[in-house]
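Repro:
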Amino acid sequence: MTRDATDAGDHTTGSAQSRTLAQSLAHRVLAAAGWRIVGEAPKEAKYVLIAAPHTTNWDLVLLLLASVEYGVWPNWVGKHTLFKPPFGALMRALGGIGVDRRARHNMVDHLASLFREREKLILAVPPEGTRSAAPHWKSGFYHIAVAAKVPICLGYLDFPTKRAALGPMMMPTGNIKADMEVIRAFYADKRGMYPQDQGPVRLASEDPKTN
């Protein structure tokens, strides 16, 4: 299946031939591991990409390989200390965006501003934040999408079937509870490598307030 390589993020350079080679290599690696991507790449030029469940360090590698096979070249968020010499230039070349996670609200504003500045941006944000079971998803992905007025791509890695996909797309309405119901329903039958480490698809803000 032919993928549209024009969805490349701003960090990607090089000829169409080199991108096609990267897609072919990604396909071969995934196929050798028994994985297959399903569906089409999103047509939108800007969106927040999430993927769940997240129970192993291999999830990021598989997600990035699947994205490359689709012809999609996502940026990703990393701790600002990763972007210091001697590896900072390499991290940025691979699509990394350094942020200081101690400044949570500033981080949302900063990443939302990048969407406004760029013609194309696919930002991968892991909602679980950890590969161990946690009581809540982190809400950053949602608030970035709302602030930037861009859709959220519901990507997934399903280990029992070894299927990976980017999509469907949903535009957040601002009604976080209603939107999370849609997201919960979509991920209900998706399983990670270690299902026992999957936490609930739920944000802390959805819990009843206690005094």
